[in-house]
Amino acid sequence: MDLNPDRRGDAAELIREETKVKCVVWDLDQTIWDGILLEDKRVTLRGEVLEVIRKLDERGILQSIASKNDADAAMAKLEELGIQEYFLYPQISWGSKSEAIKNIASLININPNTIAFIDDQPFEREEVEFSLPQVRCIAAEDMNLILERADMTPRFITEDSQLRRSMYMTDRVRKEEEQHFSGTKEEFLATLNMVFGIYPAGEGDLQRAEELTLRTHQLNATGYTYSYQELDEFRKSDRHRLWVSELEDKYGTYGKIGIALVECSEEVWTLKLLLMSCRVMSRGVGSIMLNFIMNEAHKSGCKLWAEFVENSVNRMMYITYKFAGFQEVGKNGDILILENDLTSIQPFPDYVKVTCSE
Amino acid sequence: MADMKTDIRQFLSRYVKNQDIQDDEDIFSSGIVNSLFAMQLVMFLETRFNIRITNQEMNLDNFKSINSIATTVDRLLA
């Protein structure tokens, strides 16, 4: 494929997108509000804070809190100020801020290198910079610059970015319910009434598809990134198939969570991209799209190959391929080529309803 | 080996509805093979038995029943 100047610009833009901030972690005293809550119960929001919080939320950037405070008093204050709903897994305790940020990263299931931390105290920023150098630390006094930053400005604001916070919120409810559930994992999943939909990508899916190629690392078989324009060409091309999947359950939708791209020749289908959002990692739906494609390849009478490029976090995808019966048949630089002889295709799990459309 | 099988059975009982799995029963025939379960099985075996399951060992046949899992772990421990 020729790289015209436009495309090159696009590629540079895509690389920058990979390092975008997914979650902003706020300090409270002298950062979100003026004053120190323990000394003065009547603290008020700082000048531009509300605007910044709302705009980040609209952009699909998650937000949380790392504050040394009395947790009950601080949460009550956030509620009184009407901003409590914006924060996922607030960490309010007397522990270190770097520990708080590690907890947030693990609870949301994101890499700390996608977190930005805002605090007025140089000491706290230095502590975080020392323990977690990959976290971007921002002084509270630079708050007015936050919305202008390139790493906090996504290329597209998709339906999914707007839903992101509420999806993580409902996920918390699911986790709590799962902890109190006494049966097996399989029985718990059956209580969720999941519906998994697979359909060919339409034009309206492409922004989200591009976003998924950039944001997804753990459940991503190759890590290839494609721009909107490239994906649009695949969608229209006879030599490619591009599918999108979505998931919903009794608590609501998870949005568009997966993509698969297949390159088709007369005899061989090659899976170039198979990825799924980490948001659905614990839902037991990771093999469904793969099984669907195995069925489609079988129907078309073609061989099925899949490419796999190892990174430090995507071992689960390798396991997914191998447990679905793929075998390594070749290597091309960093790219492993796997083949499935399609003699045995697992049925879809019975705890989820799968709908496919042509 | 008997202890190992008990550990494996205990792990499986947290995931699978069938609470009476035979040693030679194909655990993947029920459609439970999903990436989550596979990953957690691999993580469980690696942590519990302090082994590393290599790419070469990562084949469905090596994990399809309690017997085959125990044989695989045994081989990696040797």
From TrEMBL, chain A:
Q: Output the NCBIfam families linked to this UniProt entry.
A: FkbH (TIGR01686), HAD-SF-IIIC (TIGR01681)
Tell me where on the tree of life, at the top rank, the source sits.
Bacteria
* InterPro entries in UniProt: Acyl_CoA_acyltransferase, FkbH_domain, HAD-like_sf, HAD_sf, HAD_SF_ppase_IIIC
Protein name per its UniProtKB record: HAD-IIIC family phosphatase
> Which species does this protein come from?
Paenibacillus dendrobii
From TrEMBL, chain B:
* Ranges where the Carrier domain occurs: 1-77
Q: Which domain of life is it from?
A: Bacteria
Q: Which Pfam families match?
A: PP-binding
What this protein is called in its record is Acyl carrier protein
Lineage, broadest ranks: Bacteria, Bacillati, Bacillota, Bacilli, Bacillales
